[in-house]
């Protein structure tokens, strides 16, 4: 158990990185609190797996430091760091029984056989695999194999952190949900720090207390699922989280207010920043149709069962709105209004308004 | 309802004919010879199972069979571990991969009688590179035409040189198919290099290794050309393996009956050992 500090971490896969674009990780400063459930969320290629491999020691960072509590582990190999990692594809030792698979990390560290037995039994019970302890691991289904991989990560009770690298990719959808709840439950029982890497927002939001959103090698925002949804710190977070994502509308500043398509748009609060590119961000959940506001033409209506998503065009800009009641015809002209306390301004992609208290 | 379609036989027919002409009919002629005696002129006399009984009691056959098992056992004991070691130490990526692969494949591309001739010249005591070096530079007496031990060492070394590559290439194919995550997980689990080999690499190589051992067993058990060109079975009978002995009986002495009986027993042994080995190796998988 430990607090993990990443300090001025940079990593490049090239031998002589020159420009910032050569870095897979640009600059990471972050502290993972002991016992937290974190998700590392981002699109493919954003550097999240690189970051994970640096924490586990499979990769050495080009620059910067990693501290477990106050000990510098930057140059320690994985087996000296006392961490556990679960991979995208289940890794099991085919020729061993499930019991031996779970016992493997303990036996490698020379634990006494009665300690091994006690831990394995305990973990097997947590994972509901007690009945298969004696079967050969190669005969298991993919979800059970992945459970065993997780079990090998959890079997040591002194691990500093358990990391999951998109562990549900190969699992059937209906089992994904079960395993995800299992993980959440496990976190409550073992109280280890857990970092869960994924590009799936549902997985991240259900698993984690804190979600770390990454893009292009930088951490864009850290927050609870609610914070990420309600106040995206960057337009990327707005896009990436939510379905459909946040509407980002090109805007211009005008006397301390903002205009979109010539219409003044009331914002949540005073503007705190400025930049080259000014945009208004509003989630589809908070756009309502009626008369007044900005005028747009309905381009498409998608029925998602629980609600409808209406796509309207204002000039060249597309605005999505989630509508519960009756929907307008395709091609109809509608007025779009934005709920004021949810309308924010972004300057160069970053949040530039403050909420009124 | 299943519908019967007899036209399917038509499609099987070519294969049936092919197998009949290249396997069944030749084997049946051998069976035919094995139970008869002939003195030429196309005259045959019924002999029953006499040839088989005679052969199974013959010291000459026992000796050749013993030499054959010794040879096959020795080359397997050397080529399999050596092949695994070489495959493990070959690079997994980079420009050296194709270089290594081509170097490995080269010995296998050389025609068998050329291999025999090469090693024959290579080991000649007075002009061969190895022979001259051993006898005149190191001063170790080495002449495989005189000394049975030297002959055996040469035959074994030649086979190892010629065929270890096959084991290497098959094992290498098995090794490169192991995803990186396995090695990473093993590092995190604190596994030693030996445990990585024992629990990851060896199990993943098992299928290809089974095939490799099977191929090497069959090929070495039936080996003829290379030792025939190299030693001709000598000195004396010391390197007369089963197939060399068989050819001596069939074409040297023209004893067609005993030779046919020997062929069938030879074939049965190869088949039995291959079947036993394969069944034992794959039994685990179905459990």
TrEMBL record, chain A:
Highest taxon, organism lineage: Bacteria
Keywords: ATP-binding, Cell membrane, Membrane, Nucleotide-binding, Transport
Signal peptide: none
Cell membrane recorded as keyword: yes
Gene3D superfamilies, per the entry: 2.40.50.100, Nucleic acid-binding proteins (2.40.50.140), P-loop containing nucleotide triphosphate hydrolases (3.40.50.300)
SUPFAM superfamilies named among the record's database cross-references: MOP-like, P-loop containing nucleoside triphosphate hydrolases
PROSITE patterns in the cross-refs: ABC_TRANSPORTER_2
SMART domains according to UniProt: AAA
Xref: InterPro entries: AAA+_ATPase, ABC_transporter-like_ATP-bd, ABC_transpr_FbpC, ABC_transpr_MalK/UgpC-like, Mo/tungstate-bd_C_term_dom, NA-bd_OB-fold, OB_MalK-like, P-loop_NTPase
CDD domains: ABC_Carb_Solutes_like
Domain spans labelled ABC transporter: 9-241
Annotated GO MF terms: ATP binding
UniProt-listed Pfam families: ABC_tran (PF00005), OB_MalK (PF17912)
Family membership: Belongs to the ABC transporter superfamily.
Protein name per Swiss-Prot or TrEMBL: ABC transporter ATP-binding protein
From TrEMBL, chain B:
SUPFAM superfamilies attached to this UniProt entry: MetI-like
Keyword annotations of the record: Membrane, Transmembrane, Transmembrane helix, Transport
Entry membrane topology: Multi-pass membrane protein
Superkingdom, natural source: Bacteria
Subcellular location(s) of the protein: Cell membrane
Main location: membrane
Name of this protein: Sugar ABC transporter permease
């Amino acid at each position: 158990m430990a607090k993990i500090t990443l300090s001025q971490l940079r990593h490049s896969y090239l031998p002589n990185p020159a420009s910032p674009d050569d870095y897979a990780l640009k600059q990471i400063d972050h502290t993972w609190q002991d016992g937290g459930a974190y998700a590392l969320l981002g699109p493919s290629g954003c550097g999240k797996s690189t970051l994970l491999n640096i924490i586990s020691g499979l990769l050495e960072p080009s620059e910067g430091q990693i501290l477990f509590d106050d000990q510098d582990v930057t140059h320690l190999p994985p087996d000296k760091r006392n961490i556990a990692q679960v991979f995208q594809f289940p890794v099991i030792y085919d020729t061993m029984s499930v019991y031996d698979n779970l016992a493997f990390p303990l036996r490698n560290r020379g634990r006494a056989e009665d300690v091994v037995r006690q831990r394995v039994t305990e973990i097997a019970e947590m994972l509901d695999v007690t009945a298969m302890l004696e079967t050969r691991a190669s005969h298991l289904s993919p979800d059970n194999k992945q459970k065993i991989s997780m079990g090998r990560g959890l079997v040591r009770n002194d691990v500093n952190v358990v990391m999951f690298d998109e562990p549900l990719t190969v699992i059937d959808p209906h089992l994904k949900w079960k395993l995800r709840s299992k993980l959440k439950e496990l976190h409550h029982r073992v109280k280890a720090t857990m970092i869960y890497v994924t590009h799936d927002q549902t997985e991240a939001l259900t698993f984690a207390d804190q979600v770390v959103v990454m893009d292009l090698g930088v951490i864009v925002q850290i927050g609870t699922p609610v914070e990420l949804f309600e106040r995206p710190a960057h337009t990327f977070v707005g896009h990436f989280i939510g379905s459909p994502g946040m509407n980002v509308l090109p805007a211009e500043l005008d006397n301390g207010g903002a205009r979109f398509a010539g219409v003044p748009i009331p914002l949540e609060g005073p503007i705190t920043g400025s930049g080259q590119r000014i945009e208004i961000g509003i989630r589809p959940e908070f756009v309502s149709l009626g008369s007044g506001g900005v005028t747009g033409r309905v381009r498409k209506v998608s029925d998602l069962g629980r609600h409808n998503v209406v796509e309207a065009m204002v000039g060249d800009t597309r605005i999505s709105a989630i509508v519960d009641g009756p929907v307008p015809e395709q091609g109809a002209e509608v007025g779009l209004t934005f709920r004021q306390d949810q309308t924010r301004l972004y300057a160069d992609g970053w949040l530039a308004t403050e909420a009124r208290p | 309802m299943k519908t019967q379609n007899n036209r399917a036989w038509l499609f099987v027919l070519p294969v049936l004919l092919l197998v009949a002409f290249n396997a069944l009919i030749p084997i049946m002629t051998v069976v035919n010879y094995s139970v008869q005696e002939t003195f030429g002129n196309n005259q045959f006399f019924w002999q029953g199972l006499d040839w088989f009984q005679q052969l199974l009691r013959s010291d000459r056959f026992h000796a050749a069979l013993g030499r054959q098992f010794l040879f096959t056992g020795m080359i397997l004991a050397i080529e399999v571990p050596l092949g695994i070691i070489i495959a493990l130490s070959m690079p997994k990526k980079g420009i050296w991969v194709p270089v290594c692969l081509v170097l490995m494949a080269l010995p296998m591309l050389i025609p068998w009688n050329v291999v025999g001739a090469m090693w024959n010249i290579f080991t000649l005591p007075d002009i061969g590179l190895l022979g001259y070096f051993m006898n005149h530079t190191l001063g170790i007496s080495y002449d495989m035409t005189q000394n049975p031990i030297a002959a055996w060492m040469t035959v074994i070394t030649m086979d190892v040189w010629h065929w270890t590559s096959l084991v290497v290439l098959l094992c290498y194919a098995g090794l490169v198919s192991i995803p990186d995550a396995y090695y990473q997980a093993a590092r995190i689990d604190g596994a030693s290099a030996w445990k990585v080999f024992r629990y990851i690499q060896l199990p993943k190589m098992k299928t290809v290794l089974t095939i490799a051992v099977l191929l090497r067993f069959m090929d070495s058990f039936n080996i003829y050309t290379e030792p025939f060109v190299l030693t001709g079975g000598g000195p004396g009978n010391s390197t007369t393996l089963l197939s060399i002995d068989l050819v001596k009986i069939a074409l040297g002495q023209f004893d067609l009956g005993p030779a046919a009986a020997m062929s069938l027993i030879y074939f049965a042994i190869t088949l039995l050992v291959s079947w036993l080995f394969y069944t034992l190796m794959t039994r685990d998988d179905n459990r």
